[in-house]
Write a structure and sequence with these properties.
single chain, alpha/beta, Creatine Amidinohydrolase, 2 domains, 6-stranded mixed β-sheet, 5-stranded antiparallel β-sheet, 14 strands
Length: 390
């Protein structure tokens, strides 16, 4: 269990989760998302490539289900008692004709009452169709329902301890982005720059180290800047081209992403104008952030501002962020886009991600923002302007 989070923190998280379960009429919840397991128990291991789950009953003790060789790790990273951790045998690992959740279903059949309503994280990355089938086939007489992003929504408002973890990540990401911009230069291989970035992500600061981020550094260069989510190659950076850098730092798995754009040489006028418009739009969005303001209102302020410059962005401009495990650092809850009427509240944190992918070239700028009682606080402190290296 992390030094940042004590027993009272986990008790409060579990209480809020059970309040949502009760509101949804659930008797139990099967949690499979690694970030949610970590949030509720502190369990932290690279074990999510095999099926695992946390069973949260409306009343009673939690039950953590994982591979047998990972059970000791569960006891080391959580405060769960030995009888609360069940390890499935290794002959269920990637074995045709059987699934680890066959074992989980057998365990649950002895622990849940007939007719119980059990929530499933049906859209989680690590919940497969075979896992769903194993539970439904092995546990009859109950009703399975999609719980939606129940725990994710509990995570949306951060505690003081969580915000401290994200501020530590912000101090790390400032160093990581400085390293990245320094590493991007004409003739330098993209993979060599990626190596320097990942070293800085792990090293952290003198006070605290970094964790592995949920997403690898993304840095499309040249023609690649016209699209999102490209990583790197072994090609060299070239003079006269832009490189988009989107990365994150993490501390205790709490993330602070950041995106910036670098140009080697004299940037074209259109790129400069777009950069200035994006920065103006960012300020308009930040000025709109206040408790009670709806997500769509923040996006609308951005959209009105860039429209004056003849620009538009069809994709969302932000999303809730916090704990992250591969493959994503987003929380899959609120989004800054038209139609999302979620009201902002103090303690919410989101990645305000302004990516403009144009016909000839692209540009990205982002900040992680905390909603405070009076407005917006950007957690990281780093220059926002287009980085030009001649």
């Amino acid at each position: 269990m992390s030094e940042l989070f004590g027993r009272a923190e986990y008790d409060a998280r579990l209480r809020r989760t059970r309040e949502r379960m009760s509101a949804q009429g659930l008797d139990a919840l099967v949690v499979v998302e690694p970030a949610n397991l970590y949030y509720l128990t502190g369990y932290d291991a690279w074990s999510f490539y095999t099926p695992q789950a946390l069973v949260v009953p409306l009343e009673g003790e939690l039950l953590l289900f994982t591979r047998a060789i990972d059970a000791p790790g569960a006891l080391m990273t959580t405060s769960l008692a030995a009888e609360q951790v069940i390890g499935f045998p290794d002959d269920y690992v990637q074995q045709p004709g059987r699934h680890p959740f066959d074992v989980l279903a057998a365990e649950l059949s002895e622990r849940v009452r007939p007719g119980a309503r059990i929530g499933l994280e049906s859209d989680a990355y690590y919940f497969s169709s075979r896992a769903d089938q194993a539970l439904r086939f092995g546990l009859s007489g109950v009703t399975f329902v999609d719980s939606g992003e129940l725990v994710n929504w509990v995570r949306v408002v951060k505690s003081a301890a969580e915000l401290e973890a994200m501020r530590r990540a912000a101090r790390i990401v400032e160093r990581v982005m400085a390293t990245a911009i320094d590493a991007v230069d004409a003739g330098i291989r993209q993979c060599d720059a990626a190596a320097e970035i990942m070293r800085a992500q792990a090293r952290g600061t003198e006070e605290w180290g970094g964790d592995y981020p949920a997403i690898v550094p993304m840095m499309p260069s040249g023609p690649g800047t016209r699209t999102a989510h490209l990583t790197w190659s072994d090609a060299p950076f070239r003079q006269g081209e832009a490189t988009v850098i989107e990365l994150a730092a993490a501390h205790r798995h709490y993330h602070c992403p950041m995106a910036r754009t670098v140009f080697l040489g004299t940037p074209p006028a259109k790129l400069r104008r777009t950069s200035e418009a994006v920065m103006e739009g960012l300020e308009a969005a930040l000025d709109t952030v206040k408790p009670g303001v709806r997500c769509e209102e923040v996006e609308a302020a951005w959209r009105r501002t860039i429209a004056r410059h003849g620009l538009e962005k069809p994709s969302r401009i932000g999303y809730s962020v916090g704990i992250g495990y591969p493959p994503d650092w987003g929380e899959h809850t609120l989004s800054l886009r038209p139609g999302d009427r979620t009201e902002l509240a103090p303690g919410m944190t989101f990645h305000l991600m302004l990516g403009m992918w144009l016909d000839e070239i692209g540009l990205e700028l982002s900040e992680v923002v905390q909603v405070t009682d009076s407005g917006a606080e950007c957690l990281a402190r780093f220059p926002r302007e287009l980085a030009v290296k001649r």
